[in-house]
Amino acid sequence: MKLQKFFIKFLSNNKNTFRTEEDLIFRRKISQIVGCEIVNSHIYKEAFTLKEPGVKNSPSYERLEFLGDAILGSIISCYLFNAYPGKREGFLTQMKSKIVSRNNLNKIGEELGLPDLAEQKAGVSAGGNLAGNLFEALIGAIYLDLGYEVCEKTVLGRLLTPQEIAKLENKIMSYKSLLLEWAQKNKLELTYETTEEHLPNKILNFKSVIRIGSEKISNASDSSKKKAEEKAAQRAFYSLNKKENILEKSTIPIG
């Protein structure tokens, strides 16, 4: 422990040694996000390095993303356990899923501007979830650099505050699951008819039609089967909820 403190102090005292202006700008940006001075900027550099295609064992954010996912899950689980003492396991699981969902982490990562910090390389495909992946890698880097307590304080104090978490209580994450649960409870036959559509310029599209029995309830199109069905389920939900009040009759814990 003493040796670790010595090296941290040594690195901190020499943080401006042999650094380019680009390094200092990067370090400043990360420190602003974290809310305190970082020690080892090399860890954060790794957290924002994209994997180079065709290069075996290419350094990238993926290992830190793996670690950050576990650390973030631990921080959020402990917070929810203490913040909602009267809630059952199902509610806590549902809330955790909302908080660490890919959509929510992507949103946070975009708001923090994390993709702009990534080392872009020629021929590298970033992917649609880059912002969320980098957010988890950042959590992993903070944990390795500053320890669990600082990491927890950063997450709950700056990145995923209790106020932001509370906003997710009534957020519906899956209209498809909500609609299915309602149909099963009311013993209704709910079916999805999803077909491929070939649009001009060889673009593949999916069209999903939802029926209850033989009655068509809604339809929607999107670039993937999953997105088309979720969009159709959302439209069906709003249509049916006016008549049936699905939200009140559902047993899915949403708040």
Automatic annotation (TrEMBL):
EC number assigned by the record: 3.1.26.3
One of the record's GO cellular component terms:
cytoplasm
Q: Which domain of life does the UniProt lineage start with?
A: Bacteria
Enzyme's top EC category: hydrolase
Binding locations of Mg(2+) = 65, 133, 136
Q: Which UniProt keywords apply?
A: Cytoplasm, Endonuclease, Hydrolase, Magnesium, Metal-binding, mRNA processing, Nuclease, RNA-binding, rRNA processing, rRNA-binding, tRNA processing
Instruction: List GO molecular-function terms, semicolon-separated.
Output: double-stranded RNA binding; metal ion binding; ribonuclease III activity; rRNA binding
One family name in Pfam for this protein:
dsrm
Q: Where is the DRBM domain?
A: 174-242
Some GO term, biological process aspect, for this entry: which one?
mRNA processing
Tagged with keyword Protein biosynthesis: no
**UniProt cross-references to InterPro entries, sorted A to Z:** dsRBD_dom, RNase_III, RNase_III_dom, RNase_III_sf
Catalytic residues as annotated in Swiss-Prot or TrEMBL: 69, 136
Q: Which residues form the RNase III domain?
A: 27-147
Alphabetical list of CDD domains matching this protein: DSRM_RNAse_III_family, RIBOc
**Catalysed reactions, as listed in the record:** Endonucleolytic cleavage to 5'-phosphomonoester
Q: Which compartments is it annotated to reside in?
A: Cytoplasm
The cofactors named for this UniProt entry are: Mg(2+)
Q: Does the keyword ATP-binding apply?
A: no
**Member of which family?**
Belongs to the ribonuclease III family.
Q: What does this protein do?
A: Digests double-stranded RNA. Involved in the processing of primary rRNA transcript to yield the immediate precursors to the large and small rRNAs (23S and 16S). Processes some mRNAs, and tRNAs when they are encoded in the rRNA operon. Processes pre-crRNA and tracrRNA of type II CRISPR loci if present in the organism.
**Assembly mode:** Homodimer.
Put simply, this protein is called Ribonuclease 3
Protein species of origin: Cruoricaptor ignavus
- Whichever gene encodes this chain, its name is rnc
